[in-house]
Design a protein that fits this description.
Blueprint: E1 21-27, E2 33-39, H1 44-54, H2 58-71, H3 75-91, H4 95-108, H5 113-125, H6 129-142, H7 147-160
Helix pairs in contact: 1-2, 1-3, 2-3, 3-4, 3-5, 4-5, 5-6, 5-7, 6-7
Length: about 170
């Protein structure tokens, strides 16, 4: 079961949505201090990578996100990129690489619940069930009602407590 969570393309835009404009404090077009309008995402590769991941084109999403990561201007953008790379690598079943990406996202922003969710998913797929539960619990401390986190927790507990049957040909 793969319950990945993406940081949507909207986070790559200054106003929270990739196709909207918003006034922001800064230098005006006339050169003075004031407000200005910023249109579109600040990092189109991160936005396009996110959209490709959401559309199910995981290889392209990873490729675009890696380019966007190299152009990221803030820890917030880098953390979002690492979290989305983690999600993409989970879907591509590159679990060790996905775990590295999640850890990098959490180094930059420890309170990013989506990265905790993705990390739990990776650990679940690696069979590291107790660690997966701990990652979910860390995410739930940030986002207590996250249905995604609760589904991953249920999957980890189900797997952890699944009865095993041993078949033997010994008489």
């Amino acid at each position: 079961m793969l319950f990945v969570t993406l940081i949507a393309a909207a986070l790559a835009a200054p106003g929270g949505a990739s196709d909207t404009a918003r006034p922001s404090a800064g230098i005006s077009a006339a050169g003075g201090t004031g407000s200005r309008t910023v249109i579109g995402p600040t990092n189109t590769f991160l936005a396009d990578g996110s959209m490709a991941l959401l559309a199910g084109d995981y290889a392209e999403g990873v490729r675009l996100t890696e380019i966007g990561l190299r152009m990221a201007k803030s820890d917030s953008e880098r953390s979002a990129a690492f979290s989305n790379l983690c999600a993409g690598h989970i879907k591509l079943e590159h679990f060790d690489l996905a775990l590295e990406q999640c850890d990098l996202a959490l180094e930059l922003k420890p309170n990013q619940w989506r990265a905790h969710s993705n990390r739990a998913n990776v650990l679940l797929n690696l069979g590291r069930l107790e660690e997966a539960e701990a990652a979910v619990e860390a995410g739930l401390r940030i986002r207590p009602n996250s249905q995604t986190l609760l589904r991953v927790l249920d999957a980890a507990r189900l797997e952890r407590y699944r009865p095993t049957v041993t078949v033997s040909d010994d008489p």
